[in-house]
Amino acid sequence: MARVELEAVGKRYPNGFEAVHAFDIDIADGEFIVLVGPSGCGKSTTLRMVAGLETISSGALRIDGRRVNDLPPKARDVAMVFQSYALYPHMTVFENMAFGLRLQKLPVAEIEARVRSVAERLGIEGLLDRKPKEMSGGQRQRVAMGRAIVRRPRVFLFDEPLSNLDAKLRLQMRVEISRLHESLGATSLYVTHDQVEAMTLADRIVLMKDGFVQQIGAPLELYARPVNTFVATFVGSPSMNLLPGMVQGDRVVGAGFSLPLPAGVAATAGQAVLAGVRPEHLRRAEGAGALTGAVDVVEPMGNESFVHCVAGEHRVVARWPGFVAPARGEAVALEADPAHVHLFDAATQARL
Amino acid sequence: MSGPRDAEPKPPVRWGTHLFLASFAVVTLFPVLWVVKMAFRPEQTFATGLNPLPTVFSLDNFRDLFAAPHFWQQMLNSVIVAAVTTAAGVFLACTAAYAFSRFRFPGRRAGLMAFLVTQMFPGTMMMIPLYHVLDQLGLLDHLAGLVLVYSTTAIPFCVFQLKGYFDTIPRDLEESALMDGASQFTIFWRIILPLSRPAIAVTALFSFMTAWNEYILAATFMSDEASYTLPVQLQQYVGDYTTEWGHFAAGALLVSAPVMALFFLLQRHLVGGLTAGGVKG
Ligand SMILES: Nc1ncnc2c1ncn2[C@@H]1O[C@H](COP(=O)(O)OP(=O)(O)OP(=O)(O)O)[C@@H](O)[C@H]1O
Ligand SMILES: [Mg+2]
Domains in chain A, please, with CATH? Predict the structure, then answer.
């Protein structure tokens, strides 16, 4: 297994477009890194540069201390699971999984043993004679994983491996990937659109936007201390409420609301800020509360509801625990603990 | 195709369709049957009468053909020319088409354009320049000359055909193989070619037919009877004053037999959908 270092790695496509800007990360041996971000932010590009499928325009990529910028994929000893699975259509599952091993000229008996043991582990030992077109999406996905695992690479790369599965299967595979990572302990880079996948699988999450890394950190760190409004609204569902206001004494005051300032925040009186509160940190106030709004939409989720309120010119979402939620049109007063209020500079959008 | 099952058309429409198709089948088959009839009739006159079905079965015409002075030599010529053209055509077209499909290199667009443009001129227009070229090369009356000419006419079309097919093979498959440690050649040989069987079959068939059926160029470039190909020999039976229709028809059947055989042989490869199931998304 391996340590992977990206030092100011950048990508400029031949048409001049800069898809990735100075990406820096030091990935420890066995670490599971998840890349998230909106579509087109450069996740796949980054992954493909590590794979060797895309040239690196600037910076250095090192695997176990060795610079591999100019090595072809096969010399990097990296395996990749594609979103499309990319199974060889004319080969059986066995042949698909054995393809890489055969190219390494391993003894036939060893290939056979390795493929069988991985197939067993993934529960596809009964499918070894099938062709890809004779399998379901979930089965193909497993084969694609198996083909990567069987090679015992130093680094695993996944580009949205679960995005073609239905919700239930996705959840199942997510748990399985987690378990596999637990037992293989392989250094992994995983690209996804799915926040839940990111939060549950990652040792550390890398959140990107427009080719720039926004924040790198443990899932809870991104959740608890987002470095800017982009990270704040990207992580967590429903998104964090952001309310424009001004610092006044120990409170942030804006049109129709007044929230307590979090402790130790570097803000000066009169500074224009954005106050952020997650829906799950807004609760019904006993008295006047921090803001009062009229209930607009209620989304019942079973054990909780998301209540959308209109408060003056702002819209806020609050999580309502339990089975009872206010009715549409009802006026509700909401408040939040200062510890759960985030403050961002209105101009730079950076955390204060 | 709307709905799970298309509704059956109403009987009058259905009968009308059948009648229409049947009449086309008759129009298409009638001359063919006539040729068959003439081939098996032990005379050299043109078959007359409406009945296109053979009434007698005689192998005299075939026997005469087989006994003709250069027949077997000419048959061999045809086979060699067609086989070598096919082999060279398929090999060169595959490699060229793959390069055009996957690599970006200077002259790529110009090359594709040139291939397209050459397809716009009829082969006969090139006859005199080609004659001159072969003469310079000393390849007149040589089978190699014919192979050269046929290959160069067939390859541009084949390259286009194959490039179009290669373009439809997802790049993910190649990248996946690259990650698995395959070289460019391994990818071409073990992934691309096996997946392109239908297109290669069409290409092979086309090259074969180009060479096997061609008459005008062969008749121009070959003057020695021993180096004729079968179509050229066939034409000899149609004289200025008399035509040996029986021999001509028997020869025509012999010439078309291998093409048909090849068609049936390749038929099962001519189905699409080979890449089904490989990628999703
Ligand atoms: N070959 C290319 N040439 C030029 N620009 C490209 C090329 N490939 C990708 N891009 C651009 O680079 C940017 C990043 O692309 P990338 O595929 O890495 O995004 P992504 O984060 O993986 O998006 P998604 O979530 O939609 O998969 C996009 O704006 C894309 O348009
Ligand atoms: Mg992508």
Answer: 4-233 (3.40.50.300), 239-345 (2.40.50.140)
